[in-house]
Each structure stands twice: as C-alpha cells, then as structure tokens.
Fold this sequence. Notes:
By secondary structure, this protein is α+β, with helices and mostly antiparallel strands. It has one domain. 30% of the residues lie in helices and 27% in strands.
Amino acid sequence: MTLRYKGFYFHNHDNWQPEDLTDFGCWADFYIGNDRGSDAFTVLICTPSWFFRERGAAVTSGRNVIFMPSFDLTALDNFLKAECDGEIGMNHDTTMLKIDGIGDWEFRYRSYLDTGSAP
Length: 119
C-alpha cells in the first residue's frame, strides 16, 4: 500500500503565524492517505529555543516533535511531503506505523489490538 501526504492544519488556528518567527511552538495535524481517505497525525512544531524553554526543565522525549529554526510553511510542507510520500507497507497499519513518531497516529491503538500488547 502506497500512501501520499495530504497537507497539514494548525489546531484552532486558520492561517496561523507566530508573532516571533524564530521562537514559537504550536500543535498541528498532518494527513496521510490515498483516494479513499486519510489518517491524522498530531505533532508539536516548534523552534529548539521554545522547546527547551517550555520543556527543558525535565527529562523529555522529542517523539512527535518537528523542530524548525524559523517558521516557514513551505519548508514544513516540503519536509512532511519528503518524509511521508510514497511510504509502503504490507498493509494500512504497517504503513502508518512507519510514519508514527514523526507525528502521533490517531489509530495507533489498533496495532496493539492486533498484537495483544499495550503501548
């Protein structure tokens, strides 16, 4: 199964743009799918300075975080397209799990139901 990147959307912010292009953090969804539909992946998009100011006081993971040196919608779109377009797996779930980690897949729980293990 080959999937395609379908675009992104900032949570609760149509046409959102940060006040400071070099120091920001925001949540977004990006979409991967085919002609029959798409699945959402949630991701924190931020600059390293924002991330360390907001989350740097404790040990943390960078999973489902995209770091940008400055806000650039074209660069974000190009990055997601390069990372996600053409992903191929044995079935829908294995293909989506390849992308999970760039963003948090909305249906990741399904893969645990198949294996009987918990996240």
